[in-house]
Amino acid sequence: MRVCLTVAYDGTRYHGWQVQPNGITIESVLNQALSDLLGEKITVIGASRTDAGVHSLGNVAVFDTNARMPAEKMSYALNQRLPDDVVVQESKEVAPDFHPRRCESRKAYEYRILNRKFPDPTRRRDTYFYHYDLDVANMNRAAQHLLGEHDFKSFCSIHTSAETTVRTIYLLDVRKECDMILIRVEGSGFLYQMVRIIAGTLLLVGSGRLKPDEVRAILEKRDRSAAGPTAPAHALTMLGISFAG
Amino acid sequence: MRVCLTVAYDGTRYHGWQVQPNGITIESVLNQALSDLLGEKITVIGASRTDAGVHSLGNVAVFDTNARMPAEKMSYALNQRLPDDVVVQESKEVAPDFHPRRCESRKAYEYRILNRKFPDPTRRRDTYFYHYDLDVANMNRAAQHLLGEHDFKSFCSIHTSAETTVRTIYLLDVRKECDMILIRVEGSGFLYQMVRIIAGTLLLVGSGRLKPDEVRAILEKRDRSAAGPTAPAHALTMLGISFAG
């Protein structure tokens, strides 16, 4: 059967999702725990290959197994074997042809900026501390240019292997809650470092170094060097994925 | 001059506030950084001697110095020398007789319970994971019995050295925000482990093992063994202190 896992993790200690020759990854600890639990070699397929340091409340991974353990019980058994910074939130059987990267889906991310005079040490692992004033209204104006289907080549690392850089953003919203500025983005899928480059560009807008409407020109240039810097990974959390159908 | 610091910290790595023979404490890293910065031996006096693992957004400490550095500049200079889990939020000169434990003050704490099916690894350092249902309305009913001036001997560790166990609670409120249950308490001062014992007792009420009105009898017994267990330290954050006058 094919089993689908919803996985939450604190990415601080990890070299990202995808198996790496050096350093532990979320995928590698899942493969290890599943192989130990089920007594066969398991290799998961992840929906989002998050970068080193990025967190998730609900990434999705599937794997095939011959085990007779009910899929719904696997979450409990796996959490006994996983480190405390990786927690399976749900396990369930899915159709044998369900593939988390090939199915149509909507992914949600949140980038958190702590905008205050001094850092908050209790939030240092999942927020980016930025002490200059940010204009949230202008950040939202800039965000409007990125909504919809576009070629996001300007907002993609040059180290991408994607066949096409066209993606659709359904929602891009910037809001302030006390001293936290939250950038929420939902889309059909995201290019390598795309959310962090959007965050870095919106930070330039918020601090007044870029006008909101300049973001349209950046998009049209289809050139990574036109956009802002890649904002730090540790402030990014993948919130979850919903699949069509 | 006497200088007052507002200090935020992630207590995870620390053996509490107060200097200990074994293990680092918030007080010891502050004393070290201040002594290095000012070139004289500095010993701070803290307002709240928080337990090992407890966090703070705004504990208060004072010290005396002959240094000529303006007090307001010290926060920046100190943060350069402090580890990234201790951050001074403000430094200012105060009256030479200001003593943070002898002045009348109001202290605020928050105890965070994550009430959901599986743990959230990104919140494991500052929340207590509890997966059974909790009745927040009953927790609030129980809380009402603790409001006002009482002898809190039942809610104090037997290892206290306090002369009196009478304290005043101004506010004790339990609220639910999504999957988080937040216990907020404000008072004139708190006995050793008092907030954690209140949290542990309200957890018994929330889970139905204690009726809300039984909390009054527990209070009247003046016996630590009558109250609930001491809830884990890592889920407690000291929010701040305001001083009268």
Describe this structure in words.
2 copies of one chain form a homodimer. Helix content of chain A is 21%, strand content 30%. Chain A folds into 2 domains: 2-94, 2-Layer Sandwich (Alpha-Beta Plaits), CATH 3.30.70.580; 105-243, Pseudouridine synthase I, catalytic domain, C-terminal subdomain (Alpha-Beta Plaits, 2-Layer Sandwich), CATH 3.30.70.660. With 245 residues, chain A is of the alpha+beta class. Chain A is globular. In chain A, strands 1, 2, 3, 4, 5, 6, 7, 8, 9 and 10 form a 10-stranded mixed beta sheet that branches. The interface between A and B is medium-sized, with 23 and 24 residues.
Briefly say what this structure is:
The structure is a homodimer of 245-residue chains. Chain A has helices at residues 26-38, 74-81, 136-144, 194-206, 214-221; strands spanning 2-9, 45-46, 55-64, 86-94, 105-114, 128-129, 148-151, 166-177, 180-187, 236-243. The first copy, chain A, is an alpha+beta fold and 245 residues long.
What is the number of strand segments of chain A? 10
Computed structural class of chain A: alpha+beta
Distance between the termini of chain A: 20 Å
CATH uppermost class of the largest domain in chain A = Alpha Beta
Poorly predicted runs of chain A are none
- CATH topology of the largest domain in chain A, by name, is Alpha-Beta Plaits
CATH level-four homologous superfamily name of the largest domain in chain A: Pseudouridine synthase I, catalytic domain, C-terminal subdomain
> Order of helices and strands of chain A, N to C?
EHEEHEEEHEEEHHE
> In one word, what is the shape of chain A?
globular
Total domain modules of chain A: 2
Rg of chain A (C-alpha, Å): 19 Å
Strand content of chain A: 25-35%
Q: What is the name of the CATH architecture of the largest domain in chain A?
A: 2-Layer Sandwich
- Biggest interface, chains and residue tallies: A-B, 23 and 24 residues
* Main sheet record of chain A: 10 strands, mixed
